TrEMBL record:
Top-rank taxon: Bacteria
Protein name from the UniProt record: NAD(P)/FAD-dependent oxidoreductase
Every FAD/NAD(P)-binding domain range: 2-150
Gene3D superfamilies hit by this protein: FAD/NAD(P)-binding domain
């Protein structure tokens, strides 16, 4: 049983995984089992080039980010389990016990799930149809979709991040959305006391 499974290893999914991983030394997160499905074929990053994303060197290819971000996650936070090349087709259950059904016939159990698969149409994960709606901030001509949510929460235990949460398609917005979901989950694990995870060059007295 995973404490949280992230579906989607693009911008918002890996951003969420990095922040969750970076909390690994905190007592409230140390024993949590975290996983991320890094099925990358449908990522917006495949064809993108970035010149306007804060902190990212101009000319950076999205295809490079796909491999560099998962490598960074593996190197810094190896306790976050990466599940490559697996596509999730269906979700069943209610909080705190969801079952995820994958395209290779395997199943996964999780207490919390983050859906980070982008705003493409059709929505490809069965079991959440009642939350699918037209994207409210994308050009209607593009027929993008989002999941109905309140501050990323779709229903107890199910979070959505990135463009699928209704945000416009810009890398920093998607990354911030994934980080926001991570800190919400960490805050819940910390008994409701707000959490942020910072590293610093300053030496603590
Ligand atoms: C051509 C192009 C150029 C762009 N240029 C810029 C730019 O210059 N500046 C900028 O700020 N933004 C740019 N963007 C936008 C930016 O890339 C997106 O906003 C961002 O990637 C959205 O992040 P996300 O997490 O919502 O989705 P994504 O990054 O697309 O991640 C979704 C992930 O979910 C996976 N997935 C999908 N379905 C499943 C499933 N059923 N099971 C498991 N995994 C699944 C996908 O393979 C992918 O890895 C560009 C986008 C494109 C397409």
């Amino acid at each position: 049983m995973f404490d949280v499974l992230i579906i989607g290893g693009g911008v918002s999914g890996i951003s969420c995984a990095l922040v969750l991983g970076s909390a690994g030394t905190k007592p409230f997160a140390a024993t949590k089992k975290i996983g991320v499905f890094t099925h990358q074929k449908a990522s917006s990053l495949q064809d993108a080039v970035f010149n306007n994303a804060y902190g990212i060197p101009a000319g950076k290819l999205g295809s490079e980010l796909l491999t560099e971000s998962t490598s960074q996650l593996a190197a810094l936070y190896p306790q976050v389990i990466q599940l490559p090349d697996i596509k999730i087709l269906r979700i069943e259950g209610e909080y705190p016990h969801f079952t995820l059904f994958a395209n290779d016939g395997t199943t996964y159990e999780a207490q919390n799930v983050v859906i980070a698969i982008g705003a493409g149409n059709p929505f490809t994960i069965a079991g959440l149809e009642e939350y699918v709606m037209p994207h409210q901030k994308a050009n209607p001509a593009k027929n993008r979709l989002q999941l109905r949510n309140s501050d990323h929460l779709v229903k107890p235990g199910i979070y959505v991040s990135g463009t699928l949460a209704g945000w416009r398609s810009q890398l920093p917005i998607a990354a911030g959305s994934g980080a926001s979901v991570a800190t919400d989950i960490l805050t819940a694990w910390n008994g409701g006391e707000p959490v942020q995870i910072h590293d610093s060059t300053r030496v603590k007295p």
